[in-house]
Design brief:
Elements (H helix, E strand, L loop, with lengths): L14 H9 L3 H14 L11 H6 L5 E6 L5 H11 L3 E6 L6 H11 L5 E2 L5 E3 L5 E6 L16 E5 L6 H8 L12 E6 L9 H5 L1 H4 L13 E5 L5 E4 L5 E3 L2 E3 L2 E8 L12 H6 L5 H5 L18 H9 L13 E5 L8 E7 L2 E2 L3 E3 L7 H10 L7 E4 L6 H9 L4 E4 L19 H13 L15 H8 L3 E4 L2 E4 L2 H8 L4 H25 L4 H9 L5 H11 L1
Helix pairs in contact: 4-5, 12-13, 14-17, 15-17
Length: 544
């Protein structure tokens, strides 16, 4: 039997089915097929291993995440694709110092150093005329050096070490003018070890997030469009859709896990014992390939990751029906690509976050309108005014009698930790620490906080660290957090504000209800000193 005479219908079978059929053939027939296969592939620089690597090699997805366990052949896959399936490839690591192993492996596969230039950025012109460029992007913005340079393959090795903004920017230049040449992006990676890499769970939620309502199987294609606001939306298929007046063409994604056991070049070398000896949580990430449980908490991390995950496990879509909306919080858009983030509380239950960008946040009036569109039960709104972006919004609230509370993280705090041992350096530290205390599972009765299944929110809430100074507990600066995450931690800030200042606003509202204030008068009281004295005097007289 030769390769051209496989059993009828074989081409419609999966790779696993074909392997099973080949294994069931008589030894003589199987040996003949193996000889034919060796002859047919003699001119190729690289061949994928049987199993997940072969599945990844032939995967039709526009964007593939391939990874999980260490030693699964991730780097080999992306070099193999560049050497055999693509004409112009960009292969990247976060740091140039990490590229040497990749470039040496590429030269080895190529069979000669002819055509290799190691001057930064390194590049290899293969014996059959393909171009592979190797790059890095240490700092946010370094990725822009590749702007306008078309590649039909973009591959990021250890992708979670990159910022999400860098990955999305680089994928934007994947294109070709060569007819019939396929274009794709491949992210090869172990699971993230800190909050900075948590974006990968959000990008591949159907495969990685155990809380996703419609989980996807490994290798299953799902289709997504990315709107003007930079946010992904899953759609039903590859057909173009209209959104916001524009036509979007969906792109496919999938995840294929890589396993050490599928790599014959490492599985018998004792590398498994090396992985077994790794400390947790690195062992869960590199050995087990666990994308959801491999996060390591940083030293002096304000909110433990396990507490956030527990709060998400308590969340149900209908949990907010038990009581009215208690409070809202707005972290305004600070310009650039940042979104305005809105948190909504119903007691301890938080609704799914609302993110707004572009036209919805073009000015104070439009931002205020966006907030009020999601508001109910005349609840108060906490607005972060510390950066100067929330002032215009509060003016619109004042004009319309909507109760609001200003939050300025730099303001002085007068409170202490629950055990009464430490003060806070400012209001921001107080608010975050109070949220930590409310999440504490060891408090009497446990925690009642329920958070929506949102990977970005997880990253935001688990990013800040703290130190104890002479002024009290001081949080890591937002600028430093932004550098690590590549964006503002706005969702976390909104959730925290909705609890801290939201509780005080809600308590004030309940007191006014008990004193007989009407909803309109509650809004006027919230405006405080902004009211004419005669109006405030009339209301105080009525209260007495």
């Amino acid at each position: 039997m030769v390769l051209g005479r496989l059993p009828e219908g074989s081409l419609s079978l999966s790779l696993d089915d074909l392997v099973a059929r080949l294994a069931g053939l008589p030894a003589k027939a199987r040996a003949e097929i193996e000889r034919e296969a060796v002859k047919a592939t003699a001119g190729l620089a690289w061949l994928p291993n049987v199993g997940p690597q072969t599945q990844a090699y032939f995967c039709p997805a526009d964007l593939l995440l391939y990874g999980g366990q260490g030693g699964g052949g991730k780097s080999s896959l992306i070099l193999g694709l560049a050497l055999t399936s693509h004409q112009r490839s960009l292969v990247m690591r976060r740091r140039y110092t990490d590229l040497s192993a990749l470039t040496e492996e590429a030269v080895q596969f190529n069979g000669t150093r002819d055509g290799f230039n190691n001057s930064p950025p390194p590049k290899l012109r293969t014996v059959d005329g393909r171009l592979i460029e190797f790059g890095a992007a240490v700092r946010s913005g370094d990725e822009q050096a590749w702007q306008g340079r078309a590649h039909d393959l973009f591959a990021a090795d250890e992708a979670v070490q990159f910022l999400e903004s860098q990955i999305r920017f680089l994928m934007g230049w994947v294109r070709t003018t060569e007819e019939g040449q396929r274009c794709r992006s491949v992210l090869a990676s172990n699971p993230p070890l800190d909050a900075a890499g948590q974006w990968v769970v959000g990008m591949f939620r159907p495969w990685l997030d155990v809380t996703h309502p419609k989980p996807a199987k490994h290798g299953e294609l799902r289709w997504f469009v990315t709107g003007k606001d930079g946010k992904d939306q899953e759609v039903s298929g590859p057909e173009p859709i209209q959104r916001d007046g524009d036509v979007f063409i969906p792109k496919s994604r999938t995840f294929i896990p890589a396993r050490l056991s599928d790599n014959p070049y490492l599985v018998k070398t004792g590398y498994q014992a090396t992985l077994d000896a790794l400390p947790e949580p690195i062992r869960s990430a590199v050995r087990d390939g666990n994308f959801m449980a491999a996060r390591s908490d940083a030293d002096r991390q304000v909110i433990p990751s396990a507490w956030v995950m527990a709060a998400q496990s308590r969340w149900t879509p209908t949990g907010g029906k038990r009581e009215p909306m208690t409070a809202m919080a707005l972290d305004p858009a600070g310009g650039g690509r940042d979104s305005a983030e809105i948190a909504r509380r119903h007691g301890g239950w938080y609704a799914e976050m609302v993110s707004a960008q572009g036209e919805e946040t073009a000015d104070g009036s439009k931002t205020a309108a966006t907030v009020t569109a999601h508001r109910s039960n005349n609840c108060p709104v906490v607005v972060d005014v510390g950066g100067g972006y929330g002032g215009a919004v509060t003016l619109r609230f004042r004009d319309n009698g909507i109760p609001f509370v200003n939050f300025n993280g730099a303001a002085t705090s007068t409170r202490m930790t629950k055990d009464g041992t430490l003060r806070f350096a400012n209001k921001r530290a107080e608010a975050w620490w109070k949220f930590r205390e409310e999440l504490d599972p060891d408090q009497e009765g446990g925690s009642v906080i329920a958070l929506p299944p949102d990977p970005i929110l997880v990253a935001d809430l688990t990013a800040p660290t703290f130190e104890v100074t002479t002024r009290g507990i001081l949080l890591e600066s937002k600028d430093d957090i932004r550098k690590r995450l590549g964006r503002s931690p706005g969702r976390g800030d909104a959730v925290v504000m909705a609890l801290s200042e939201g509780n005080r606003a809600a308590e004030r509202r309940r007191a006014m209800l008990a004193d007989g204030y009407s909803p309109d008068e509650q809004g006027l009281v919230a405006l405080g000193n902004g009211l004419p004295r005669v109006v405030m005097g009339h209301m105080e007289k009525r209260r007495r």
